[in-house]
Amino acid sequence: MTNIYKKRFQNKYFFLSCILIFVISIISYLVTSQFLRILLVQKCPAESKHRLLDQLLYWEFWLSNGTMYNINIFPLYAIIPVIPFYTELKTIFKLGANRFKSRKQELYKSIFTYGILGGGALSLGFYLYLLLGSYLCLPQLSSLGGFESIFHYQLYHQHPFLFLTFMCFTMYFLFGFLFAIMTCGVILCFENRITAILFPMLIYVAFSYLGFGLNLRVLQVSTCTTVFCTEYSTLQCFVPLLSLFCTDLLFIILGVKKNEKIVL
Prior knowledge:
Number of helices: 13
Distance between the termini: 22 Å
Number of strands: 0
Shape: elongated
Radius of gyration: 21 Å
């Protein structure tokens, strides 16, 4: 059993996901901020070019431009590390079901572990991007909006990297954790890798469109990825996660029941 736990954390998809979000965030920043264009294409005196580039090295540009290419695929970084759960379900939890004292309990442990891996990959990958920004960027604004309302002073302005680290390992981790759990539930229900990748992405898009179309805050899950520029308070920013939590519960309950019948 110890080997199973070790294999879960020696997950190559976890590292792939971290690298992907880090690299895509950098590419997104370089392209959407016009940094590359100014650096390589635009013809102007070196001093003017240097001044233009300096204007792009603020945290506000670093965050908004870095998430531009990621905003529609954010859940994917939490889904990728969960791919091995499909293999576990087909082998350990079916062919080797008699190895467990309580198969259901081990199944829940596995789901929780992959939830941590999904949330960890998303938050750690983006944290690496923030870590790079900490060597290059300065805050231009005194506040980033409502997400820092939980603090009684301007944490972002005085300690921008500390505030963004808080954002990364709270909101982004929970966002990734819930989508990873959802992916496990979809695998339990449909037992298909492609469905496990596409279905949570479809839910992300559908919830967001419905949330904005019907003005339902609880469904506006895409706002969880842009809490660095929101008018909502810290606690209000976490409200859309409730819809993900309820969806997770539904898939997990249905999926576990289905697999219990198959094993019996």
